[in-house]
Amino acid sequence: MAQTEKKGGLLRKSSASKKPLKEKVVLMYDEIFTTEDPSKCNPRFWEELFLMKVNLEYLEGKLEALDGEELMKIKDNINCLFQHCIQALGEEHPIRVVNALQTLCALIRGVHQKNKSTSGFDIINMLVGFDKAELCMKNLMESLDSLLCAEGSESLKSLCLKLLLCLVTVTDNISQNTILEYVMINSIFEAILQILSSPLSRREHGYDAVVLLALLVNYRKYESVNPYIVKLSIVDDEATLNGMGLVIAQALSEYNRQYKDKEEEHQTGFFSALTNMVGSMFIADADEKISVQTNEAILLALYEAVHLNRNFITVLAQSHPEMGLMTTPTSPIPTTPVTPLGTTPPSSDVISSAELPLDADVQTSNLLITFLKYSSIVMQDTKDEHRLHSGKLCLIILTCIAEDQYANAFLHDDNMNFRVNLHRMPMRHRKKAADKNLPCRPLVCAVLDLMVEFIVTHMMKEFPMDLYVRCIQIVHKLLCYQKKCRVRLHYTWRELWSALINLLKFLMSNETALLAKHNIFTLALMVVNLFNMFITYGDTFLPTPSSYDELYYEIIRMHQNFDNLYSMVLRLSTNAGQWKEPASKVTHALVNIRAIINHFNPKIESYAAVNHISQLSEDQVLEVVRSNYDTLTLKLQDGLDQYERYSEQHKEAAFFKELVRSISINVRKNLAFNTLSQELLLKEFSTIS
C-alpha cells in the first residue's frame, strides 16, 4: 500500500497520484467558506464538524486569504460556525468541547487579522452578528465559567484560559477591544479566584489566570467602572490572596534562578578566564551577555495586587521556603519558548505553604524578598527598553509599599529578620560581596540597600532621571515612617549618605549635558532635603547618638561638594534664565548644611592649630563636633516629613497604557506559536463514551 503523508490540510499518496486529497475537516471548512448553508445538504454537518480534529493553520489561513468583501459574503456562515462552537461547549463529549474551543481561537484570531484596520464593532459583527452578540457572548462566557469551575479535565480548563487570553489580546490596545465589554458584563472573576485558591488548579493554571486578571483589570481603567478592579480591591480570602502571591513569587523566582544559572555559567566560562588573565577591563562587556528576558506580565499582576488590594500587603511577608530549594514536580510540564516580555509561564511548580512544611534549617523567603532580588537584577541594566520599563515598574511597586502603614510595620519589624542576597553590578572599584557574610536584618534594610545600589551604579551619560527621582522618593517615604513611629533602624547609614553626596557631585560635574535634557534641580533638592531630614529629625530615628555625630562628620568631610553645589545654584538663581526658580529652591534648602559647615570648619581648624596636628583623625573631628553642638544654630524647615502620595491615573497613565500594549502583543504571540496544540488533549480524550 502506498504511504500516505499529510501536509497543510492535504492528503497525498507518495505514488505519482495526479491530484492531492484533502482531509475531511478541510473539505468541511471549504463548505463553510461558500455562500451556501453547509447544513442544507448535510443536516449533521455541525455535529460531524466538532468530531474532526481542528486544523488551525488552514482555518486561520483561509480567513486571512479573503478580502473584506469576500468575508462579508460568508458572514452568515461565520456567524453560524461561531454560534455552533458556543453550543458545542455544552456537549458532554470532551472532544467536541476541545474542538469547539480550538475553532473559536482560530476564528477570533483569523477575523482579527482580517480586520486590523477596522473597529472592534466590525469584528463583533463578523464573528457573531450585532443582533445576536449579547446573547451569544453571554452564553460563551457562562460556558467558559462553568468549564473553569467544574471538577473536570485540567486540559479543558487550560484551553479555556488560552481562549480567554486570545480574546483579551486580540487587539494591541486592549481598551479598544470592544469584545471585552461582554467579558466585563459576564464576569469570570470568581472562576479566576477559584483557580488561585485551589493548589491543584493553581499548579496547572495559576500563571495564565494571574496574567489574564492583570490584563482584564487594565481594560478602560481610567474611562469607566471596571468590575475587575472593583472586585480585586475587596478580595479578602486568605487562600486566594496567598495563591496569587505564590504564583507571582514562583514566576519571579524562576527568573532569578535562570539569571543565577547564566551568571554561574558565565563566570566559569571563557570570559572569566580572559578577565582573570588581562584584568578587569572586560567586566562590563562580559556582564552584558548575562541576559534573561524580563517578565512584565507577572510584574504588572504584582503591581495591581499591591496597588488595589490592601489585604495583599500581608501576602508580601508570608513566609515560605526558598523557592530555589523546592523540589521540582514529578509530572512533566510542557515548556514553552520565552517571548520578548517573558510572558511564558515558569517551568517549575507553584507550591503553597501548606504543601511544603517549613524546615528550621532551610532559609525561608517571602514574596517581597523574591521581588527585591528580581528588582536588583532588572535594575542593573536600564539601557534596554524592556528592562527600563521593568525597573520603573519595580520602583512604582516599591513606592506603593513604602507608603503603606502595614507594609512599613513588617519592613521595620525587628522580629522578622532575613538574609537578602541582592545582585550587585560588577564594578571595577569594588569587590564582589560574599553571600555568606550577609547579616540577618529587617527587610527595610534590603530595600535601602537596593536604593543605594541603584544610586551608585547608574551615574552615566544616558542618565535615568525618572528612576533616580523614584528611588529618592522611596528612601524619603521610609524615613518619614521611621520619624513618625520613632523606629531606630540599625543600618549602615553612611553608605546612603556617601551615595547621595556622590550623586550631587555627578550632577555638578555633568551640569551642561544633563541640563540639556533634565531639570537636575528637582533631584538635587530632593537629595538635599533627605540630608535636612536627617539633620532635623535624625535624633528621633538614627540608632545611636554617635550615628548623628557621624552624619555631621560626613557633611563636614565632604563640604567641598556642598560648597560647589551652593555656588552652582547661586549662579543660576541670580540669572534670569529658565532655571532661576528651581535653583533658588536648592539655595534655600542648603541653609542648614551650610550652617553646619560654616560653624564646625573654623572650630576644627582651630583645634588642629592649638594641638599642632596637620590632619585630624575621624575621632578627633567627632570630638570637636560633640563639644560644639550647643553653639550651633539651625533653622526649622517645614514639610520635610511630608510627601505627595502615589497617583496612577494622573501621572502614570501613559506608561501603563504602553506597558499593557506590549504585554498584550507578546501574550498573543506566545499563544500563536505554542499553546494551542491538540496532541496532549486528544491523548487525554482518545475515547468518546
From TrEMBL:
Q: Which UniProt keywords apply?
A: Membrane, Transmembrane, Transmembrane helix
A single GO cellular-component term on record: cytosol
Q: Where in the cell is it found?
A: Membrane
Matches recorded under InterPro entries: ARM-type_fold, ARMD3-like, ARMH3_C
By its UniProt entry, which SMART domains does this protein fall under?
DUF1741
Where does it primarily localize? Answer: membrane
Q: Which parts pass through the membrane?
A: none
Q: Name one Pfam family in it.
A: ARMH3_C
List, for all copies, the residue spans of the domain called Armadillo-like helical: 435-671
Q: What is this protein called?
A: ARMD3 protein
Source organism per UniProt: Rhagologus leucostigma
State the gene name recorded for this protein: Armh3
